[in-house]
Amino acid sequence: MNGEDSSFSRAMRVVVPVVVGLVFLGIWEAFVRIGDVPPFVLPAPSRIWESFILNFGSLMASLWVTLRVTLAAFLLAAVGGIGLAILFSQSRRIEMALFPYAVVLQVTPVVAIAPLVLIWVGYDRIELALLILAWIVAFFPILSNTTLGLRSADHNLRDLFRLYGASRWQILTELQLPSALPYILAGMKISGGLALIGAVVAEFVAGSGTGTGLAWRIVEAGYRLDIPRMFAALFLLSALGISIFFCLTWVEHLLLRRWHESAVRREF
Amino acid sequence: MTSADASTRPPLLTLSGVAKTYGGGTVALAGVDATIRQGDFISLVGPSGCGKSTLLRIVAGLIGPSGGDVCWHTADGARPADIGFVFQDATLMPWASVLDNVFLPLKLRGMAREKAQPQLMEALERVGLADFSGAFPRELSGGMKMRVSLARALVTEPPVLLMDEPFAALDEFTREKLDDDLLQLWSSLRWTVIFVTHSIYESVYLSERVLVMGARPGRVLGEVGIEAPYPRGPAFRRSHGYVDYCAVVSTALREGAAP
Asked: Does B79 touch chain A (CB under 8 A)?
């Protein structure tokens, strides 16, 4: 494949979905206008845009709250997940003792834990409660992926390190962590999305009078049957999720492009 | 250099009754005796399952024998700290450049990169890869990866080089080329080489002595001295002597395999 072709196909990869999106919005707009659908059932895209501009200040403030909770939960999940996985890799006994509880935390639905966490942390520190709940959801994929990655270092390389008298620390930093990097990044990509889901679900459960994030804007708009605003908040949430995903994909590409099969661009 | 002077070399390693039984009760080795002298090029040849890799790993100290003795004739009786090991796969770190891969043994000893630089370039030049120091393993061919692996094993200038079917996965041409390069390096640097292979031809071409091993249980069936002078080249591959030695090793293998 020559350069011109590949840059053309790369451009098409952006152009095609955008055109599909625009056509979809056009059909939506036409359907609502021609069919005279009331806005509280299905608002036209133009109406949603108007609502977005009208409520720009409050929506942005809410976006900031959700973004803050999501990012903080994600970062803490990454630090905690990688840290605990490293601890597990150093001691099989600690892993045996703690891993089942990490699974318990993972399989218990966050919606079910939320009321308890909210009571313990207190409604006056709602953002901390949201952070804890989002963290619980985001933490496990990074932990399990990193644990798997640290264990999957090539055993011949491990023998080689032993042969050269490498210390545990050297084996960890020079062999296990680099081997685990693709796994860690895959876990982070899952966790990035889950942190957002966790933050939104937690906010729903936290309920009235407390929420200021995007999830609460959606609930509030629902109560008032302000469907255009509901859609505007919904789109912002999707945009946030997509941005997180693309950021992490980009980081993955930067870190792995020279050596890992998953990130290497192939010539066909 | 001929094999004639080999018997006068000081001993490096004596194996007496080395046995290995794995946890499940599998007897990988049932009492192996051998003496390896300084500067020897010795091959272990045998079918898969004859315990030749296990023996190499015991010599390296990666696993312990379940019986018998591995006795190093060094000042402190211990395995030399410097030991080169080449696996069947190149076993390179895919995330590190060629230079960083070769740097590994020195880095693990705490040597600074700048200080190691001349040694690294020398090691790469030896295997003909000086121009590829910045490349990543996935950008190299199988033969080139093996050369990097060899450069890494040689960078510490170890007195002993252990090779576990190093060229088995390569094509015939690349393998012959690497065999020749290995012999040339061995002639100039004079380390001891223990070379595991399942190819009779390769063992005869390379080594001064061939230890023929049999399977179930793994044991030494016999030893064949290859009394051909070095340097060996394409002419040796075509000589009657070479064919005869191959036949002797082959016969030893077959007789051992018969119950």
From this structure: no
